[in-house]
Amino acid sequence: AQSVSQHNHHVILSEAASLELGCNYSYGGTVNLFWYVQYPGQHLQLLLKYFSGDPLVKGIKGFEAEFIKSKFSFNLRKPSVQWSDTAEYFCAVNFYNQGGKLIFGQGTELSVKP
Amino acid sequence: DAGVIQSPRHEVTEMGQEVTLRCKPISGHNSLFWYRQTMMRGLELLIYFNNNVPIDDSGMPEDRFSAKMPNASFSTLKIQPSEPRDSAVYFCASSFGTGFGNTEAFFGQGTRLTVV
C-alpha cells in the first residue's frame, strides 16, 4: 500500500532559525502533494499544494516546498520561523490510483522558542 | 462559505452507548472524507464518499463503525457500541472532483470523542 513518511516527529527551533521538514512517499507514479498545518486545538488548514508545473511551490505565511520526483520527496521549508509557527505539520499525498483519497504522514510537531 | 461544519464539537459518552457524529460539507463539494486522529496512529482515513457513494471504506476499524451520506449536504459516522479505544478527534473533510486530482480537502473543526 502507498504510504507517506515524515521523518521528524518533533522539531524544536529558536525564532529566526530556518526550517526544513521532510516528507517522502512510497509510490513512483503520478501524485498530487499537500502540506497542511494544525495549530493547537484547531483543524487542519492548507499551507500549499503541488499538482504540476514548477516543482518549487510557494504557500501562505512564507512557506515553500520542493517536489523532487526522483527522490519521491516534498520537503517543506521556511527561511525564518516565528513563534506563531508553533504547530503540527502534515504532509499529504493523493496517489493516482487511489481516487480522491488523501493519505497523510504521521505529522511533525514544531515548537518555536521565542 | 461557512466551511465544513461538524457537530457536536465535544462528546463524552459511556462505553456501550451509540455515538453519532455529523458533518455538513462545503456546498458544491462532492467528495467527503472521515478521518480519525489519535496520538498513537496520527490521521487515519476511515471512509471516503464521492457523489454520496462510499468509494473506499477500508479504513473503517470494524463493524461497530458505520457511515452514511444520504444526500450531498449531510453525512454521519456512527459508532455502536462505543468503546474507550474509540476516543479520538474525528474530522470530516470535503473536496471537489471525481477522483485523482480533486481540489484540496477542507477540514471541519472536528469532534473530540471521549468514551469512558
Q: Could you please describe the fold and organization of this structure?
A:
The complex is a heterodimer of chains A (114) and B (116). Chain A has no helices and twelve strands. Chain A has 114 residues and is an all-beta fold. In chain A, strand 5 and strand 6 form a beta hairpin. Chain A is globular, with a radius of gyration of 14 Å. In chain A, 40% of the residues are buried. The mean pLDDT of chain A is 94. By secondary structure, chain B is mainly beta. In chain B, strands 2, 4, 5, 6, 9, 10 and 11 form a seven-stranded mixed β-sheet that branches. A four-stranded antiparallel β-sheet of chain B has the order 1-3-8-7, with no helix packed on it. Chains A and B meet through strand 5, strand 6, strand 10 and strand 11 of A and strand 4, strand 5, strand 9 and strand 10 of B.
Major sheet characteristics of chain A: 6 strands, mixed
Q: What's the number of helices of chain A?
A: 0
The best one-word shape of chain B is: globular
| Unreliably modeled segments of chain A | none
Average the pLDDT over all residues of chain A and give the rounded result: 94
Structural class of chain A: mainly beta
**How many strands in all of chain A?**
12
- What is the strand tally of chain B? 11
Q: Order of helices and strands of chain B, N to C?
A: EEEEEEEEEEE
The biggest sheet of chain B amounts to: 7 strands, mixed
Strand content of chain A: over 45%
SSE series of chain A:
EEEEEEEEEEEE
What is the end-to-end distance of chain B? 36 Å
Proportion of residues in helical segments of chain A: under 10%
Structural class label of chain B: mainly beta
**Radius of gyration of chain A in whole Å, from Cα?**
14 Å
Question: What's the rounded overall pLDDT mean of chain B?
Answer: 94
SS field, number of helical segments of chain B: 0
* Rg over CA atoms of chain B: 13 Å
As residue ranges, the low-confidence spans of chain B are: none
Beta fraction of chain B: over 45%
